[in-house]
């Protein structure tokens, strides 16, 4: 992890993207165990089909976790001041998710120099799955 300098950051700068392996059943099972979210729509194909979807799909919070990983690959976790998302699409099995971030604002608050970022997780077709923002102290 490199040291990020407030003065050298410009609005419009981007974070190095994070591209994940294709979503598979093992990933969903591991995330269900780690998060405690065992909702059947994410792990039981028969249940998912009865619910009217063709198969299980990823937890929205898994994509949020990946966005958190994007942020903490850029700065230390202790620098994170705010992080929120909106779930805008379903991440299906086989989707390759790429997380990106862009600096949208530089400001000072509570005696700290901070940046605001737009973050997003998109699938391999460029379709947004999760949109959000974060505030980082630099």
TrEMBL record:
Q: Which GO terms describe its molecular function?
A: transferase activity
Describe the location of the MaoC-like domain by residue ranges.
21-119
Classify the source by domain of life.
Bacteria
Q: Name one Pfam family in it.
A: MaoC_dehydratas
Give the matching PANTHER family.
(3R)-HYDROXYACYL-ACP DEHYDRATASE SUBUNIT HADB, 3-HYDROXYACYL-THIOESTER DEHYDRATASE HTDX-RELATED
Q: What is this protein called?
A: Bifunctional enoyl-CoA hydratase/phosphate acetyltransferase
Protein's organism:
Caballeronia glebae
């Amino acid at each position: 992890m490199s040291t990020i300098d407030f003065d050298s950051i410009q609005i419009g700068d981007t974070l190095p993207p994070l591209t994940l392996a294709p979503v598979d059943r093992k990933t969903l099972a591991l995330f269900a165990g780690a998060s405690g979210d065992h909702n059947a729509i994410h792990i039981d194909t028969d249940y998912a089909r009865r619910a009217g979807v063709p198969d299980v799909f990823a937890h929205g919070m898994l994509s949020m976790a990946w966005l958190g990983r994007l942020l903490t690959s850029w700065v230390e976790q202790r620098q994170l001041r705010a992080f929120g998302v909106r779930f805008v699409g379903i991440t299906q099995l086989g989707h390759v998710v790429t997380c990106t971030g862009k600096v949208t604002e530089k400001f000072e608050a509570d005696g700290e120099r901070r940046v605001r970022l737009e973050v997003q997780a998109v699938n391999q077709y460029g379709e947004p799955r999760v949109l959000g923002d974060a505030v980082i102290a630099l």
